[in-house]
Amino acid sequence: MKANHNSRRQQLIAKLSQHEIDMMVVSGHENIQYLSGFSGNAATLLISKRNTYLITDYRYYERACLETENIHVIRRDRDAERLGQCILTLFPELNKIAYESEHVSVAQWAAIAADLTYPHVQGAIGWVEALREVKDNVEIAYLQQAANIADAALCETLTLVREGVKERDLALELEYKMRQKGSQGVSFDTILLFGERSALPHGDPSERALRHGDLILIDFGAVVGGYRSDMTRTYVYGTPSAQQQAMFNTVQRAQHAALEKVQQGVSCDALNQVAHQVLNNSEFAQFAGEGLGHGLGLALHEHPFIKPNNPYVLSAGNVITIEPGIYIPHVGGVRLEEDIVVTKNGYQKLTHSAQNFEL
């Protein structure tokens, strides 16, 4: 699989032309990888109609040369040359430039700008992120591989569930199995919680030991080619109580309602409303999580966000999560999450682990 980074850069250059901008300074790590293929850190990407430069240092120079094509890789001596000086040397005479104001601090940009002499400089927010919203076939293939690894690792990890096992130990086993199967790391810090702690939407695994009748909430993901999967399953160890079963059934109905509505042309707000109509009409309305999902890709949380009052209209190629949840303090929580690709008339599921409740 090989991404067409040049085509992606041309899309950004077209946007720069619309705004009469001569060059853009790209600082966001995921944005640099998306536009160039470079997966390391400590880099700055300069994009113009004529030339593209990737500035890095000795630690990443060879790696950048191997990972990029049709890009001039610049090895900067950080002790001898400031970043602003390097930019000005490469582009000495420009009228108007843009920089990613979301990805550099005020102090960082002030230090860079102190060496620049361009008459017009403007901040740009979300320009590259907008290009990343719709995934191409290469990106979807990476996301599918990551989801497949997570599915397989979960299946093996569930065989280790037994009374007395600790949250932290089970989480480590899950992460180890993902790495064994080819994951570059974890998509995010694994959330694996038992019993009443499952009511923490983003809790950290602890020394809490599993007891009969506990809810088990597992939220985790693998990484392939920099792209991240994100799946949640909730189980009960033993026979569920009437309340636990009702929580699970409600969340599952809310998820199914949303999935039935997913297709190109549906707004994020409308999709969120469908799921929350089920949740709000249940006995658990006051304990329902607010959002329904988010975009997925090089970053764990990307646009579009499936939440109230977001008018964004889904397009074929958006990769999103659908993850309704109920969280009752001191009792427990249930969340079910799938990764899907939006299509013209529906969706393609990336995550395939069964939603069995009893273990």
From TrEMBL:
InterPro entries: Creatin/AminoP/Spt16_N, Creatinase/aminopeptidase-like, Creatinase_N, Pept_M24, Pept_M24_MAP, Peptidase_M24B
Top-rank taxon, per record: Bacteria
Coiled coil, from the record: none
Record-annotated Peptidase M24 domain positions: 142-344
Limits of the Creatinase N-terminal domain: 8-134
Pfam families, sorted: Creatinase_N (PF01321), Peptidase_M24 (PF00557)
Protein name from the UniProt record: Xaa-Pro peptidase family protein
Species, as recorded: Pseudoalteromonas obscura
Taxon lineage: Bacteria, Pseudomonadati, Pseudomonadota, Gammaproteobacteria, Alteromonadales
